Amino acid sequence: MAEKPKLAMYWSSSCGGCEISVLNIHEKILAVDEVFDIAFFPCIADFKKKDVEAYPDEHITLCLWNGAIRNEENEEMAHLLRQKSQFMVAFGSCAYEGCIPALANLTSKEAIYNTVYRNNPTLDNPEGIIPLTSVQVAEGELTIPAFYHTVKSLDQVVDVDYYLPGCPPEPEQIWAVLQIIVSALLEGTPLPPKGSIVGVSDVAVCEECDLKKSEKVISRFYRPYEIIPEAGVCLLEQGIVCMGPATRGGCGALCPTVGMGCRGCYGPMPGVEDQGAKMLSAIASVIGAGHESMEESQLEEEIQAVVDTIADPAGTFYRFSMANSLLKRAKVNGSN
Questions:
Q1: The domain that contains 56 carries what CATH number?
Q2: Tell me, what's the pLDDT at 294?
Q3: Which of 39, 131, 283, 335 has the smallest C-beta neighbourhood within 10 Å, fewest atoms?
Q4: Per-residue pLDDT tens for 102-142?
């Protein structure tokens, strides 16, 4: 009897929701167990790094990597699992684009440490102690991974075969990825081109959204708690920031359908290099301010007043895509 293909899943810098999302394929998880042997899945079973190190190269058929690269351990495991895996999938938005962890790129490692370990009102740390990568204790040396200045997406560290976006990916998309690999292995069906983003569409979320759309003229923006959206009407037209115009579809517009603006977790449209810049362009085209006879300086003031109603523009427009954007990170104290 031929050996089963081997499946691995690893949880890097992320919330862990992608690990849980695998269970959302429900009874199909039994089919996964039928087809695959689990080679590494620390979230659900007692696997160790040494187990992976002992495998021959490419022993693991499919590795679903969940999470961004935030520290030394993340990077080390990325290289190890890449070496041991035939197919590496950036599974979820953190692996694909850096996602929420990469918003740390708007500040510095030092500022993060100060906030977490020194200036946090819930702390009792009068000596201002921060973690060290190495410390001597009576039993010997204790080490922890180095914390990086910049958060990266998985493909900025290792070669990635496929991308599965979403925060987290939807069950049917997870199942589709597993089927693609299994069909290729067992039936010889062709694989998608390397580098493909799987489980998505080539149209914007807006094209999948059933909310009524008309000509947009926006005079101010609202945070979710400031407004109850009118049912059935485009959220962006109501002044609720919705990333639908700049975001690749495939999710079925789940968030706008329940009155919450798209956050952009499926990443940019095909051919778009910077999702945040695309959304800024879309918003700039619909701002309703001033009139033709107005002085340019006064018009700029009115436009700026509308823009100022957007809370945290960087965190809003680059919520998921900071690590893979043109910005990648902010300059802090003159350094990248």
A1: 3.40.50.700
A2: 73
A3: 335
A4: 999 999 999 999 999 999 999 999 999 999 999 999 999 99
Query: Could you tell me if 193 and 137 lie in one domain?
Result: no
Per residue in 275-322, pLDDT (tens digit) is 999 999 888 888 876 666 777 777 778 778 888 899 899 999 999 999
Burial 182-216 (b: 16+ CB within 10 A, else e): beebeeeeeeeeeeebbbbbeebbbebbebeeeeb
| C-alpha count within 13 angstroms, C-beta hemisphere, residue 308 | 7
Q: What's the number of domains the chain is made of?
A: 3
Which ranges of the chain would DSSP assign to H, the alpha helix? Answer: 17-21, 28-35, 49-54, 72-84, 93-97, 109-113, 171-187, 205-208, 254-257, 275-284, 296-307, 313-317
In a domain, 329, yes or no: no
Q: How far apart are CA 62 and CA 203, in angstroms?
A: 28
**Average model confidence (pLDDT) across the chain:** 91
How far is residue 28's CA from residue 193's CA, in Å, rounded to a whole number? 26
Name the CA dihedral angle for 250, 244, 203, 68, rounded to a multiple of 10 degrees: -60
**Sign of CA pseudo-dihedral 34, 36, 42, 47:** positive
pTM: 0.90
